[in-house]
Amino acid sequence: MVKQFCHLICYIKVALFLLxxxxxxxxxxxxxxxxxxxxxxxACDGGTVPRSSYVEVYVEVQDVNDNTxxxxxxxxxPSVLENSExxxxxxxxxxxxxxxxxxxxxxxxxxxxxxxxxxxxDSNTGKCSFQSVWHICRSI
Length: 140
Hints:
The protein is mainly beta. The chain contains 1 helix and 9 strands. The chain has 2 domains: 14-60, no CATH class; 70-138, Sandwich (Immunoglobulin-like), CATH 2.60.40. β3 and β4 form a beta hairpin. It is rod-shaped and about 90 Å long.
């Protein structure tokens, strides 16, 4: 029987199956926690005088959309004067997402609480502004 073994330095979330040489994960990986793993894999044959070698393996963890956007506060309490002009900025929201690449592109919409259409939000910037009733009537 051929004596084979491996040695993985430092990381327990990745394992090498001894006889097949297949490298698999032992646990769920999270890019936001660890972006990559450097593994040293040591192999030894079953000879009378065993011969061995090792190889370095760099494993990059690719990101998936597993985080939700968040704001600094769970609830905001801005106010606006009743005679404000159309386009008056009420609040500028800023959300962040721990994901990378296109998974962290934030867009903003008003999903409820605006049946009269008094408020508008810029989908790219998060700037929430007041729209006058006159503006709403003109668009009908």
